[in-house]
Every structure is written in structure tokens, then in C-alpha cells.
Amino acid sequence: MVQTRTAYRTCPLCEATCGLELTLDGRELLRVRGDKEDVFSHGYICPKAVALVDLERDPDVIRTPLVREGDRFREASWDEAFELLDAGLRPVIDAQGPNAVAVYLGNPNVHNMAGLLYNRVLLLALGTSNLYTATSVDQMPKQVSSAYMFGTGLSVAVPDVDRTDHMVILGANPLASNGSLFTAPDLPGRLRAVRKRGGKLVVIDPRRTQTADVADEHHFIVPGTDAHLLFAIVHTLFVEGLVAPGRLAEHTVGIDLVRTLAEPFTPEAVSPVCGIASSEIQRMAREIAAAPRAAIYGRIGTCTQEFGTLASWLVDVVNVLTGNLDREGGAMFPTPAAGSPNTSGTPGVGRGAHFGRRRSRTHDFPEHFGEFPVAHLADEILTPGDGQVRALITIAGNPAASTPDAGRLARALDDLDFMVAVDIYLNQTTRHADVVLPGQSTLTRGHYDVAFAALACRNVANYSPPSLDLADGEMNEWEVLLRLAAICAGQGAHANIESLDELAARQVLDRGLKSPATPAKGIEEDAAWKMLAGRRGPERMLDIMLRTGPFGDGFGVRPDGLSLEMLERNPHGVDLGPMVPRIPEVLRTPSGKIELAPQPIVDDVERLRASLSRRRNGELVLVGRRQLRSNNSWMHNLPTLAGGSNRCTVHVHPDDAARLGIEAGKHAQVTSSAGSVEVEVEVTDSVMPGVISIPHGWGLDGDGVRARVGAADPGVNSNVLAPSDLIDPLSGNAVLNGIPVTLAPA
Ligand SMILES: Nc1nc2c(c(=O)[nH]1)N[C@H]1C(S)=C(S)[C@@H](COP(=O)(O)OP(=O)(O)OC[C@H]3O[C@@H](n4cnc5c(=O)[nH]c(N)nc54)[C@H](O)[C@@H]3O)O[C@H]1N2
Ligand SMILES: Nc1nc2c(c(=O)[nH]1)N[C@H]1C(S)=C(S)[C@@H](COP(=O)(O)OP(=O)(O)OC[C@H]3O[C@@H](n4cnc5c(=O)[nH]c(N)nc54)[C@H](O)[C@@H]3O)O[C@H]1N2
Ligand code: SF4
Ligand SMILES: [Mo]
């Protein structure tokens, strides 16, 4: 008889943070189901979680360090790998300084504590200004607009979906993505519930998505014109006397300036640009204003476009002007239990947004939150001169698949003197590395969503202990990152990382105890430190963050408050209740107000106004599309997700197909200023005329890629088509949607 056991843990694969029930036989994962008792997800899961079984068994997953020998990789011991790293990185740092080593951090870092808590230790040790992350191909515009308006880049207002009467979704498809900057397990169910209780759901997207299919209303929009549309809504609110910020009025500055800025954006002027009738724009504005509780939400489609920051800002402008920001059923600020910049420091006031403390070498572009646009990474590698990037560390990232002008970046990787990747696959990016250090299985990690609790539509704290111990030869990813940090700091391949870890944890403790709002008032650092005895690594840091955070036990000051020990006793999570109004306490702007018209944003409005006269002249533009059974670039090798509806095709509207002589099932050539791909055609009226769509994350091929399932049906990398010179100037975010292209039969 098989002796199986059950373990519970939070799914690390997307932002929805669903609770999983695992069935294990020894070290073998047999089955994944939804955890019905999870306080947030109540049993919901999607097909990706089921595929964790495949991931655990995937023979292509890297489990041993790999080192390059000519064109091939061979397995190596950890010691040998770290010695080679020391020998490869140190000379670059010694000869050319730390800026010669660039770091790229990919998306999965945000889904695990190792990345979230230890990458910053590595970055501090290295001291490079060449930091790049997936943020600049994702949500940078929202973080920039949020920082300007509310004071921190993590002060992102989240739709209170469970209590709203009216929701407008721009540029997001949660029925495929399960939500982003909006943590809400079973978001599809929560959206359906809005309608069931008599509310209304409106979707604005150049594609008629699965989300549009379950909505009351869907409007096609010309890619890149959300800011125009939102400004026309703002215009309508003002001219029709519908501006009603209510309680927010006394906490907001800049409303009059927004009125002036909106003047040119009449519904009549905007309509031919965005493709939505002016009467419809007016109706949308009136319905948002009339709804007792409404929430406007924008995501990938509104960020990864030409006017990303303006569109992100205007989403919140509409929420403020209609009194829906910080109101139940509107867009609200979560209160994350493990702390965030808007629960620490002085409540209600702060330093606000400061960008451009450094500027990049090749583009003189300002840093945002310490990083530069990844669209410029290839230039930093390929442009000779002082400060040229000669080595690269990628951690859980696949920039050669996920970032603009991907073909050129892939070539740039070969130009490096040294490259190291911390990853679980040999893919488009890591195949270029000199040393690959394996990440660890999800099952051997402790897990807490430090990032997504700050974006969740309900306040929840949930810790998952490791479901399995490390096997022989495996290493915790946080320890790998500390080893790398020690090497970068010149301590060599065999440094004492326990003391490094202590140092890092002491800093977190120091900050936590000094925070004005902490419950740990009057607690001595040494006394607190003693209470952490027996913990190390991410768990120790998490315990500190929980105990000094807004719900914390304050190291004993509030005995029924949160600590890691308390979460360990609650394997299905602790529910901390719905979001609560937080204005003005949540603000960290110097004025202590919501900045509705921040100067850098005001300055960019002229660019938007000038674009009002632009006409499309039959031009085609490319947008992406996420697929339910995929995860960016890295789950294509899992048999249960491959095949079926998961196909890399270009969607073409029947009118465009007829006009261009394109046939369904045949291949077509898609060409932009950056590159060209040949891809199979699907003719469908789910895309608007003039728009074609290719999913991102495909193109898993090239010498050295190790992915038997994925490489059998590689598809094409749509980011070969994304020009690296198309960025949102306010944030540096890449334009991945609305790329001008031509289409011809192959
Ligand atoms: N055209 C287009 N491009 C896009 C997008 C789009 O919508 N359209 N979306 C953008 C967005 S939103 C994002 S977030 C980026 C993502 O961009 P990236 O983060 O660069 O790419 P991912 O595909 O998420 O790659 C994750 C990498 O992490 C590795 N990995 C997975 N799990 C682990 C682990 O536990 N440990 C370690 N060490 N490694 C692990 C995988 O093997 C893979 O190499 O792509 C962006 N690119
Ligand atoms: N299954 C699955 N789930 C995922 C991921 C995945 O790859 N697969 N990736 C995860 C990640 S990293 C992220 S960031 C989230 C993203 O989550 P979402 O933001 O929901 O991402 P998408 O599904 O790409 O939806 C973006 C939508 O924007 C539309 N769009 C394109 N251009 C424009 C435009 O100019 N204006 C408007 N209004 N719409 C536009 C596209 O047609 C598309 O439907 O998903 C996460 N979840
Ligand atoms: S929706 Fe996201 S968190 Fe939930 S099971 Fe699917 S991948 Fe995991
Ligand atoms: Mo993302």
C-alpha cells in the first residue's frame, strides 16, 4: 500500500496566490488540488498548478550546477561552480568596477522569498548601477504613477472587486492571467459575482478576450490610446458636473489643473483616435459616476504601451474624481501584514518619488527605483567605452525571450566576457551562460507572498513551510544568492554566509523596530533578536517583518498579533479582513496629499495632446495575448500544458486577411522595424481590424536549449518584433503592445 501524505502550500506560479493541497509519496509529488480550507482561495486553482507535478518530474529541469566547456555544459559540484564564478566575476569587477557587471532579475523572483529578500543583499554587495528587471517590460508605469500620486511605488490601488457595483477593466485579461497588481484568487469567479449581484463589468481591449466574453460590455480600442479615452472620460466628468471626490477633496491637490489638462480631450476629438464612439465614451463616464461604487482597473495593455504612465495615472485620476479611490467597492490600498513602504515610516507623509539619482551610460536615461530600462541592456553590453557591461548575472529571468529586440539581446549575451545564471532551465537566455546555478524546487522552500499581500483585494497572511527537505546536493536559493553576494563583495567562494545572513537580518530588524508605526514600541534590538533564535534565512526576516508590521505581535507587545509561529499554526492562512480606507495615513508624499497632477506627468500630457491629430492610414499594429496554460516563457516544457489550445499563432481579423491575401492555417511573415517572424495564421474577428496578436513567451529554441517538450513546438519569439527604441519616456517601460508591423503571406 502506498503511504501518501498531504501538504498545504501557496501556489507560487502567478499573483493569485491560491492555496494548494499536495499529495506526496516520499519525495514524489503525486497530485495537486485546490485547498478548500484556504482562507483566500477556497479551493480554486488553475491548470498551471496541476502542472507542478510535471515540473517536479521534468528531466530537463536543472538540478546540478552546470559549467560551460566549449559549446556544451557539464555538471559540476557547487564548490567548483562557485570557484569558477569567483574567477570569472572578480577580474571584471577589479579591472572595470562593479558597473561592468549587470544584473537582470526576472519575474519568478517576486514569487519567492529568496529573490525578494536576498537579491537586495546581492545588489548591495555588488554595488552596480546596471540593474535591470522584468519590471520595465511590465508594471513600471503603474509604479511610477503611484509613486508620484501616493508617495511610494508600491502604493498601488487595488479594485475592491468583492464589493464593487461597477468595474471597468482596461488592458487586462484575468480569465487567462488570473490577475496582476490585483491579487484575487478565483478572480474569474469574483468578476462573475459582480454581475450576479447586479453590478456591471466593462472590458476595454483591442481583442474580444475571455474576460470580455463574461462582461456586460466590451469595447475594442486602438492599442496605445487608453490615456486618450480616460482623458475624454475625465473631460466628460468635468463638463457634466459629475466630479465628486467627496471625502478625498480635502486630501487631494491638483484637481483644477487636471480639469485644464483635460480640455483638449473632448470625446469628439478622442473618438477617431481610440475607435470608440463619443456617445459611448460619454455614457461610460456617466455610468462610472452614477454607480454607487465603481473601480477602474488597468494592467499590461495600459502599461506596456507608448503612453503607459499617463494611462496608469489616469486610471487613478478617474477613481479619485468619482470618489471611488479608497472607498469600499472602489480602488483601495491593502494593508500588507509583512510591511511595505506605506506601512512604515511616518504615517501620512514621506519623501515621495525621486527618480534619476543616476543616469544610464548609453541613453542618459534616469533610473527608476534603482533600475534602468531593460530595453537598453543590449546597448550597454554592445557599446564600447568606460563602464561598458562585460558580465551579466541573470536570476530567474529570461530576457532573451521576454524583452524588446530579443534577437539582438541574444547576440549581445554572446559578446559578454562572463555570464552566470541562477535558473531551472537551459533556455533562450541561460544557454549563453558560462555557469548555471540551479534554483530550487518550490516544494523545498518556505513561502510567503511578501509582494502580493501588498496588492491583495483582501488582507491575508499565509506562510507555507517547505513541503520537502532539500535532497543531497541541493542548495537553498537564498544561500546561493548569499554565496554570490560574498563573491561580489570580494570574500571569495567559501565565505561564511551565516554571518552575512545575520548582518542582513539585523538590518531588517533595525529598520522594523525604528519604524514609527511599529507595534514593537520600546523593544530592545537584542531582546528581539533573542526571540528569533532558531530561525535563519528568509524565515527569520519574515518573522521580523510580520512582528514589526501593522498586524504584528510587536515581539510580545500584542500577544495575539502575528508572528511566523502563529502562521505556522494556521496552514490555510489567517484572514485579516477586507481592505479598509487608508487615506490619508497611507500617503507618503511630501505634501501629505494625493498629488493628482504631478509635474513630470503634466509635462508629458503635451505629447499625448499632439498625438490627437495622428491617423492610422491603414497601418497594422501588433499586440500580445496571454494564454491560460502558460506562464510567460517558462512552462512550455510541461506536457500537461503543451498542445491543445496553447498555440503560437497570429490572430488576424477577416477584413485584414482578405485585404492582404492571408489565409488561415498558412504561414505569414510579420515584420517590424526590429525584426521579422514567420508564424501560422488564425483568422478571427476576436481582434479588431488593424490589429494582429501573437502571444509572448514562445520561441524556445537555439543551440544548447534543453527542453524536449517545449522545443518540439517552439513557436516564435514575438519580442524579436519589439523595437528597443520604443519606450514610455516617463518610466522607461518597453512598448510591447501597439507595435507597427506589416503582414504578408510567407
Ligand atoms: N511581448 C511581450 N513580452 C512580454 C510580456 C508581454 O505581455 N508581451 N510580458 C512581460 C512580463 S509581464 C513579464 S513579468 C516578463 C517576464 O520576463 P522574465 O522574468 O525575464 O521571463 P520569465 O518567462 O518569467 O522567465 C522566468 C525565468 O525564471 C526561471 N525560473 C522559474 N522558476 C524559477 C525558480 O524558482 N528559481 C529560479 N532561479 N529560476 C526560475 C525560468 O526557467 C525562466 O528562465 O515578460 C515580459 N515580456
Ligand atoms: N496563464 C498565464 N497567467 C499569467 C501569465 C502568463 O504568462 N500566463 N503571466 C503573469 C504575469 S507576469 C502578468 S504581468 C500578468 C498580466 O496579466 P494581464 O494584464 O491580465 O495580462 P494579459 O492577459 O496579457 O492581458 C493584457 C490585455 O491587454 C490587451 N491590450 C494590448 N494592448 C492594449 C492597449 O493598448 N489597450 C488596452 N486597453 N488593451 C490592450 C491585450 O489584448 C490583452 O488582452 O499575468 C500573469 N498571469
Ligand atoms: S491561478 Fe495562479 S496562483 Fe492560482 S493555481 Fe493558477 S497559477 Fe497558481
Ligand atoms: Mo509580469
Describe the protein in words.
The protein is an alpha/beta fold and 746 residues long. The protein has 5 domains: 1-57, Phosphorylase Kinase, domain 1 (2-Layer Sandwich), CATH 3.30.200; 66-138 and 355-442, Rossmann fold (3-Layer(aba) Sandwich); 160-338 and 583-609, 3-Layer(aba) Sandwich (Dimethylsulfoxide Reductase, domain 2), CATH 3.40.228; 496-572, no CATH class; 616-745, Beta Barrel (Barwin-like endoglucanases). The chain has a 7-stranded mixed β-sheet with strand order 5-4-17-16-15-6-7, covered by helices on one side. A 6-stranded mixed β-sheet has the order 24-26-25-28-23-27. Helix 3 packs parallel to helix 18 (477-488), helix 9 (226-239) runs parallel beside helix 14 and helix 19 (497-514) packs parallel to helix 21 (537-548). The N and C termini lie far apart (57 Å). Bound molecules: ligand MGD (2 copies), iron/sulfur cluster and molybdenum atom (MO). Molybdenum atom (MO) is lined by residues 107, 138.
Quick structural gist:
With 746 residues, this protein is of the alpha/beta class.
Keywords:
746 residues, alpha/beta, Phosphorylase Kinase, domain 1, Rossmann fold, Dimethylsulfoxide Reductase, domain 2, 5 domains, seven-stranded mixed β-sheet, six-stranded mixed β-sheet, 24 helices, 28 strands, 30% helix, binds ligand MGD, binds iron/sulfur cluster, binds molybdenum atom
